[in-house]
Structures are given as structure tokens and as C-alpha cells.
């Protein structure tokens, strides 16, 4: 089934039906990955992995793909796992996060430090093998700065217990929000990591499970760095 999906993807690519071919490439690679996990024969595993590498190269080589997902107001089902997981392949070991608003734990409508922590938890769980996370953000204003630094240092120390290094840098001019993985994927979200609405209460559905948390309206754009001029 994986091979058939790949043949279909190539046919659609040749026909310039790029979005449809993207879906088929993704489906085929996913199917082959399932075969690799289920196979105990090491020779067959190497063969399937080689095929996955070849198909992945074909999939990413032409610079034609741009995936966009629009999250509607009050939509649910868009946890960080749902948005990012398909791009966190096993080869991902380094992540860059650029977001000017990773701060203000007690701000009325935002919990961005907690959101960043939740994002880091997702990375630690895998299936990727992240060893380094680079955060570029801006300083909190006024009295919140010391709290921001203390919280980030606590996250940094906690990550080190899992063998992950967090590098933190601050910029007063940062505006863009983007997340990059060292397998080449770049994800831009209009609201950055802050696209979840404030929960109705500490014991309301969606407080813990972000798949059940209503979202603000925003757009998610996914690129591969081979397809972009900026990296």
C-alpha cells in the first residue's frame, strides 16, 4: 500500500497536482514507517528505510510545497501534538523557537510560559530525539522580568534532567513567530504558541487536555527550508 501511494504521488507530481501529491507522499511515507516498526528482519528494515529516504528526498526536492491550515475561532482538536507531531521525525535533534511573548505567567488572557513548557514536554516525549532547544524571545516589561527569567531558568534546569539543553536569547526587536526543526521543517503560526483561549476554570474540560481547549482564530503555515530563502 505504501508503494502504491508513492507511485500515485509521483504521477500527481508530474501532472503538477502538487497539493494532492503532497498528501500521497505523506501517506506513503507513513505507511512505510509502520512497516519498519512492525518488521523484525534487519535486512528488510534497512531496505524500507532506504526507500523512505529516497521518497522523502523526492518529496522535498522541488520546492513546490506549502501547507496551510486555518484554525477557526473556538475550534478544538489543535493541541501542539496535533499541529507539530507529523514533522517531528526521529532525526529531529535541534529546535529553534522564535516568539516575542514567551513571558507573563499571570497575564489575564495568556499563559505563554506554560505554553512553552507544554511545547517542551511534547518534544521530550518524542518520537524525536531532541538534544537542543533554542529560544529567542523578548524581555518582559517592568516587574515581570525577574519572574520571566526565573521561570525560563526553571524550565532550562528541568530539561537538563532529560538530556536537553535550552539556550535562551533575548531581542528587543523580534516580531516574527516561527518554529524550526533541524530536519528542515519550518512552522509559522500567526499567534505563535498562544493560540489557545483561556480555560473557563481550573476544573473545566480543556484545562489539561489542549485537544479539548477552544482556540483563537489563526493560520498555520508549513514550509520546508529547502523551499525558503530564509533560514
TrEMBL record:
Pfam family membership, one: MIT_C
Domain spans labelled MIT: 3-56
Example GO biological process: midbody abscission
Alphabetized InterPro entries for the sequence: MIT_dom, MIT_dom_sf, MIT_domain_contain_protein1, MITD1_C, MITD1_C_sf
GO cellular component: midbody
Domain MITD1 C-terminal phospholipase D-like: 77-224
Name of the molecule in the record: MITD1 protein
Amino acid at each position: 500500500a505504501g508503494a502504491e501511494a508513492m507511485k500515485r504521488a509521483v504521477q500527481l507530481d508530474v501532472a503538477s497536482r502538487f497539493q494532492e501529491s503532497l498528501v500521497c507522499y505523506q501517506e506513503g511515507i507513513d505507511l512505510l514507517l509502520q512497516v519498519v516498526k512492525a518488521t523484525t528482519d534487519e535486512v528488510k528494515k534497512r531496505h524500507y528505510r532506504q526507500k523512505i529516504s529516497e521518497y522523502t528526498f523526492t518529496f522535498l526536492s522541488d520546492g513546490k510545497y506549502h501547507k496551510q491550515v486555518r484554525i477557526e475561532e473556538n475550534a478544538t482538536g489543535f493541541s501542539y501534538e496535533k499541529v507539530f507531531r507529523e514533522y517531528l521525525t526521529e532525526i529531529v535533534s535541534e529546535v529553534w523557537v522564535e516568539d516575542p511573548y514567551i513571558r507573563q505567567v499571570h497575564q489575564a488572557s495568556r499563559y505563554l510560559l506554560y505554553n512553552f513548557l507544554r511545547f517542551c514536554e511534547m518534544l521530550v516525549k518524542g518520537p524525536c530525539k531532541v538534544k537542543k532547544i533554542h529560544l529567542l524571545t523578548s524581555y518582559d516589561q517592568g516587574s515581570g522580568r525577574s519572574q520571566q527569567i526565573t521561570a525560563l531558568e526553571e524550565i532550562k534546569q528541568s530539561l537538563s534532567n532529560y538530556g536537553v539543553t535550552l539556550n535562551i536569547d533575548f531581542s528587543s526587536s523580534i516580531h516574527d513567530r516561527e518554529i524550526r526543526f533541524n530536519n528542515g521543517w519550518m512552522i509559522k503560526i500567526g499567534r505563535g504558541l498562544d493560540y489557545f483561549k483561556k480555560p473557563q476554570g481550573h476544573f473545566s474540560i480543556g484545562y489539561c487536555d489542549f485537544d479539548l481547549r477552544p482556540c483563537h482564530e489563526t493560520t498555520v503555515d508549513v514550509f520546508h527550508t529547502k523551499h525558503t530563502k530564509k533560514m
